[in-house]
Design a protein that fits this description.
mainly alpha; two-stranded antiparallel ribbon; 15 helices; about 70% helix
Length: about 325
């Protein structure tokens, strides 16, 4: 059943993108600039396809039986809509963050891990605040990392699939995994379409929502660590830019994945390294507990530091260019 759903969703998304690419080229063409990793004008906003397919699948799933997780992608639609508008009109950052906070509140409200009745008012406020920051950080970091062909789509397909195996997810969540694979066909190097903010913010929010549907906090942490290649790269880049006195939200090419590409690695080589690292963490989640996943995550962070030191274009040189 699940393989059929994945294949059907992948084919549907491939077909949908094939038909919509002319319109995306006309309305959402991303022309390269000095901060881009691509050299050819490429349509963006392609993430609207897997957002639409997964949302439709969720509606069908709800018609056949109620499931708490079945509504998760549907509740992320306001965030996806804001991302789609931002892809076209570059909306103010305050608008974008407001809808991210709203989405984070929904995710916390849905989470079985969080129960206000089990906490004092003081601790409840602290936990909510920490979760709001964490969820919006995951959403933004996922968006930050969407700058190389196949990178975010590949890593998120692996992460969402493994968490879906672990949790009792409705079949509609597998439709999202399948539609991501269909999108990846068009997004692999050389990419013929980008997912845009509509896709990257949606994926970050769905991932955060699944993480907080774990049966325990240690399991939630292990799920979060699956995204170490993406989140550690984004986090280290933000911290280094802050220390360097740079404007954090200004466009740049300073992530490790970008500096590896500047050093001569192809888009596909960088993406395969990140996807493989994600898959290894996913395998650790499936076969071991949190300690093993944590050790694997630390090992991959050390590998990232070695790549940063000996392979990638140095941070300071990339900052000056």
């Amino acid at each position: 059943m699940i393989p059929l759903i994945i294949l059907s969703a992948a084919f549907t998304n491939w077909l949908l993108l094939r038909g919509s690419l002319p319109l995306l080229r006309q309305r959402l063409l991303d022309c390269p600039n000095a901060r881009s990793s691509h050299s050819q004008p490429t349509p963006s906003g392609g993430g609207i396809s897997f957002v639409a397919i997964s949302s439709l699948a969720c509606c069908l799933s709800l018609m056949t039986g109620h499931s708490r997780l079945a509504v998760l992608p549907l509740l992320m639609l306001p965030l996806a809509l804001m991302g789609f508008l931002d892809d076209q009109y570059r909306l103010p950052a305050t608008w974008r963050y407001a809808i991210q906070l709203f989405t984070a509140v929904i995710i916390i409200w849905m989470s079985p891990l969080f129960r206000l009745s089990d906490l004092s008012a003081f601790w409840a406020i602290g936990v909510v605040g920490a979760l709001l920051v964490s969820i919006t950080t995951v959403i933004n970091f996922t968006n930050f990392m969407d700058g190389l062909d196949g990178l975010v789509a590949g890593c998120m397909a692996v992460g969402l699939a493994v968490i879906s195996i672990q949790l009792d997810v409705p079949w509609s969540m597998w439709a999202l995994v399948g539609s991501l694979l269909g999108f990846l066909i068009w997004n692999w190097c050389p990419a013929r379409v980008f997912m845009g903010d509509v896709g990257s913010t949606f994926l970050g929010a769905v991932f955060a929502g699944l993480v907080l549907h774990a049966i325990s906090w240690p399991q939630a942490v292990s799920y979060l660590l699956i995204a170490t290649p993406l989140l550690a790269d984004a986090c280290s880049c933000v911290l280094r830019r802050l220390v360097d006195g740079q404007a954090v939200f200004k466009a740049h090419r300073l992530h490790l994945y970008q500096r590896l590409q500047q050093a001569g690695w192809s888009h596909s080589k960088v993406s395969i390294v990140y996807i493989t690292a994600t898959a290894l963490l996913a395998l650790a989640v499936l076969t071991s507990g949190l300690p093993a996943v944590l050790l694997m995550a630390i090992a991959e962070i050390i590998l990232g530091l070695l790549l940063d030191r000996y392979v990638a274009v140095p941070f300071l040189i990339a900052s000056a260019s």
